[in-house]
Amino acid sequence: MIQLEDVTKAYQMGKVEVPVLHGVDLTIADGDMVAIMGPSGSGKTTLMNIVGCLDVPTSGRYLLDGTDVGRLSGNRLAKIRSRRIGFVFQSFNLVARTTAVRNVELPLVYAGVRDRRSRAGWALEQVGLGERRKHLPNELSGGQQQRVAIARALINDPAILLADEPTGNLDTASSIEILKLLAALNDAGRTVVVITHEEEVARFAKRVVRLRDGRIMSDEVQRARTGAGAWQPPSV
Length: 236
Hints:
about 240 residues, alpha/beta, Rossmann fold, six-stranded mixed sheet, four-stranded antiparallel sheet
């Protein structure tokens, strides 16, 4: 599904070119759950932006389902983002004066879809908040607000969930709740990519990719996945 081949990324800062990624090779198969780890400045956010079709490589290729993303127009990239990828961020980005179900509906409003309420209700059921659909964000805990954000990411039934520090604003108990939910969604067949700097978060993934200074330092299948059901790594 996701294949990066010798990907580099550099940004132009005035007259100076600042390299961020250096020859990254990475493959993520359908149904995998991968944690991409690294300290600040490692390039993990830039890598996330490329995987999420928010940016394109300076050189190399990013193939998504066999399509070279770097050759697509801005409109084509926007369609891929809306239909193939669901985004979950550290800040929940909910509209404060709008109920949970209406927050989940928002991507469908922008897409002009009519049958929004039933689909939003389905998405909230997927994250265990079917009975909270009429609650405002300030009537929900932090973990519940992040569940609403995940439901919003699921509304178009994307194949890929891309989560950027999804537990960064949560307490420990709520963090575990959200990570178990992401693992359950992965067990149901979705590809999940989590950007994190926390070892505790990475333990919920099947693979851990470690970045430093824009290069992949290691890519390992984990022996076990905390709280992630019956998944077992392939025998070696």
